[in-house]
Amino acid sequence: MQIQPRLIRLRDAPIYLGMDRNRFNREVRPALTEIAIGRQGVAFDRLEMDAWVDHYMRCNGRPPLNRGPGRDLAYRQAGPRPPHSRKHWNE
Length: 91
Fold this sequence. Notes:
With 91 residues, the protein is α+β, with helices and mostly antiparallel strands. It is built from four helices and three strands, in the order βααββαα. Helix content is 42%, strand content 12%. The radius of gyration is 22 Å and the shape is elongated. Residues 85-91 have low confidence and may be disordered.
C-alpha cells in the first residue's frame, strides 16, 4: 500500500499538478493556503490543490467528443475527408 502525503512541499507542488514552477507561482499559488513547515519550509494541502484542479477543469476544460459506437465505426471505415476545397469543410 502506498500512502500519498497530505502536504506537498513547494518544490514538488508544480510537479504534482504537471506544470512549471512559474505557472504554479502565477496561477495556482495565490489561490492556495500556504502551510509553514519548520522555519523556512512551505507546503500546500494536496486536497486543496485537487480542488483547484477540479475548478480549473470546470472553467477551462472541454467535454469529450460525443462519439456513439456507430459513428466511430463509420469514421474509421470511411476515414477523414480530404480538404479538397473550402466548400466541403462545412458539410
